[in-house]
Task: structure prediction
Amino acid sequence: MCLVRSYTAVKHKINRISLAALATGILVAGCGQVSVQVGSDDVETPKLLTGSIPSTSDIAYTDVSPDDRQIIARVLDSVSVDLSNGSSLEDLTLPWLNATSGNSGTVSHIDPALFPNTGCLSFKTTANTITGIKLYAGTACRDISAAFAVTSLSVAEA
Result:
C-alpha cells in the first residue's frame, strides 16, 4: 500500500502559519512608533510626542506641600489687624515653620485691598525647602469656617 500525500493538506498548514505570523506582526507593529521630523531622515533621535510646559503654579505646588500651605494660612489668621478697613500690611513680615518637613519661610507684602469684597488677601512668601529658597506670590481666602486657606500659589518675580 502506498501512502499518498496531498498538496492541499500542506498548503492549508502553510497558510495557517503564514496567517499567524502576519497577525503577530500586525499586533507587534501597533505597539511601536517612530516619528521623523518633516524633511529629515533622522530616525535615530527620538522625538517627544507628548508633554506640557510646567507652569509657575505647578512648581509652587510641587515645592510647597499642602501642610506648608496650611501653616501659611494659620499665620495669616494670626494677623490681628482689622482687615475690613483696608489697612496696609505691606511692612508686616511673619515667619512660618513646618516642624514636620523642616520647611520654613516668611509671609510678607500682605495686601488686603480685595478683602472687603471677596474675603481674600494677596501675599508673598519665601519658602526654604529642599529645592532651595524661592519667592512665591499667593492668595488666601476665608473658607466656610472663616479661617484662611491658601487658594493659589505661584513662583513670583523677585
User: Anything to note?
Assistant: The first strand starts at residue 94 and ends at 97. DSSP finds four helices and five strands in the chain. Residues 25 and 31 are 10 Å apart (CA to CA).
